[in-house]
């Protein structure tokens, strides 16, 4: 059976041609460009302009629609023109080229196509923080977005529609700040391109493959002391302290707990953020925190049901109430590392569970294979400070 011919992807904002399946006289539905979106940002496909028997006729209809020369029933004239043309289909091609030149001329005059990165950012910022009333963003979210924008000044005056992957990647590669700041810049890129795709300001998402090419530079932190851990265990019925203990005995970054997979049957976590070595890693759930994990999942449906920023604020208040000096969520990660070191957890397994890379260590980076049982035996060396 001959395969159906593949046609090129249409540019953003051009409309769509959908194949409805064989057995139809006119199997191609021709839809005009999307103009409406659902509350979650998903596009709502408009009613078809017409149904045609050939993709090229559909393309001619869309080109005429964009040029302003389309009228209902035109598809029949175009189909007849195709049949009367010579074997190269020159009549139809000439019609498409004629209308396309009109649309190209009109597109070049659109002010949106000439907006700079700064102008698109300003529109995006207003769209996210001022026009969208369905969600209230924290002051820290606004500050992070503004800081990320300031840290990519090389793009500010450039035409947004002319940017490509390499332009964005160079901003990250040339940034001298810590990885945490680079992550905020990449996050801003992703958000702006999501906005730009909705409003047809770009051909595609050029931020999709931008990455950090420098080594992990974990922020320094202060682990909880044994006496602090004793106090935390004494307050384990507090939902916030409950989560602090889970973090201290598993070692993920706070952001990872928002989406982490929890396997209660086999007792392990799987997930991670930030680096290649840290993503999707497996950490056995220490026996001391299993009751806390099980209770939390049963109550909230997930480990972290609030944003990491909101949890941070709750954590400070809970520590103060328990009589413990201020610690950040990242200090829990340092606590896990310190506990591994104190109780003699294999150094390479500690790196694996923390998601650290084995830079320069070919044996462990390529040939280091450890089973869940191997890691469980190591993590269970840690004694809980009840």
Molecular structure report:
By secondary structure, the chain is mainly alpha-helical. It folds into three domains: 94 residues, no CATH class; 85 residues, DNA polymerase, domain 1, CATH 1.10.150; 154 residues, Intergrase catalytic core (hpI Integrase, Chain A), CATH 1.10.443. 47% of the residues lie in helices and 7% in strands. It is built from 15 helices and eight strands. The strands form three sheets. It has a three-stranded antiparallel β-sheet with strand order 1-2-5, covered by helices on one side. Strands 6-7-8 form a three-stranded antiparallel β-sheet. It is elongated and about 85 Å long. About 3% of the residues have low confidence.
> What kind of sheet is the major sheet?
3 strands, antiparallel
Identify the CATH homologous superfamily of the largest domain: Intergrase catalytic core
- Structural class computed from helices and strand pairing: mainly alpha
CATH topology-level name of the largest domain: hpI Integrase, Chain A
Count of discrete domains: 3
Supply database-style keywords:
386 residues; mainly alpha; DNA polymerase, domain 1; hpI Integrase, Chain A; 3 domains; three-stranded antiparallel β-sheet; 15 helices; elongated
Summary of the model, kept short:
The chain is mainly alpha-helical and 386 residues long.
Secondary structure layout:
Blueprint (H helix, E strand, L loop, with lengths): L15 E4 L8 E4 L4 E2 L5 E2 L5 E3 L2 H13 L6 H11 L5 H20 L7 H15 L7 H12 L14 H10 L4 H20 L27 H9 L4 H10 L12 E3 L4 E4 L9 E4 L5 H11 L7 H15 L6 H14 L4 H8 L7 H6 L4 H8 L7
Antiparallel strand pairs: 1-2, 2-5, 3-4, 6-7, 7-8
């Amino acid at each position: 059976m001959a395969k159906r011919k593949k046609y090129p992807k249409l540019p953003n904002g051009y409309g769509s041609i959908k194949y409805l399946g064989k057995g139809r006289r006119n199997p191609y539905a021709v839809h005009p460009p999307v103009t409406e979106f659902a509350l979650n940002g998903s596009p709502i496909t408009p009613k078809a302009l017409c149904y045609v028997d050939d993709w090229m006729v559909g393309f001619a209809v869309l080109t005429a629609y964009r040029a302003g020369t389309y009228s209902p029933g035109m598809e029949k004239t175009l189909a007849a023109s195709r049949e009367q043309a010579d074997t190269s289909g020159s009549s139809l091609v000439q019609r498409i080229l004629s209308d396309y030149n009109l649309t190209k001329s009109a597109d070049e005059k659109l002010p949106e196509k000439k907006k700079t990165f700064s102008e698109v950012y300003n529109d995006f910022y207003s769209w996210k923080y001022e026009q969208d009333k369905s969600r209230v963003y924290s002051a820290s979210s606004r500050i992070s977005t503004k800081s990320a924008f300031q840290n990519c000044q090389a793009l500010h005056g450039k035409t947004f529609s002319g940017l490509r992957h390499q332009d964005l990647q160079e901003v990250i590669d040339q940034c001298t700040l810590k990885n945490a700041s680079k992550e905020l810049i990449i996050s801003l890129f992703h958000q702006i391109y999501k906005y730009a795709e909705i409003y047809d300001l770009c051909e595609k998402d050029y931020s999709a493959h931008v990455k950090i090419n420098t080594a992990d530079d974990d922020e320094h932190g202060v682990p909880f002391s044994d006496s602090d851990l004793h106090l935390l265990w004494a307050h384990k019925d507090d939902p916030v302290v409950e989560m602090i203990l889970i973090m201290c005995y598993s070692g993920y970054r706070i952001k990872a707990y928002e989406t982490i997979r929890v396997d209660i049957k086999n007792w392990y976590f799987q997930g991670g953020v930030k680096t290649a070595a840290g993503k999707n890693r497996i950490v056995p759930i220490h026996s001391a925190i299993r009751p806390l994990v099980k209770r939390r999942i049963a109550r909230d449906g997930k480990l972290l049901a609030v944003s990491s920023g909101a949890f941070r604020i709750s954590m400070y208040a809970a520590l103060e109430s328990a009589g413990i000096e201020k610690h950040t969520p990242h200090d829990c990660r340092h606590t896990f590392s310190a506990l591994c070191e104190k109780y003699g957890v294999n150094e390479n397994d500690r790196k694996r569970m923390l998601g650290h890379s084995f830079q320069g260590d070919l044996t462990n980076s390529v040939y280091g294979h450890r089973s869940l049982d191997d890691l469980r035996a190591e993590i269970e060396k840690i004694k809980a400070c009840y």
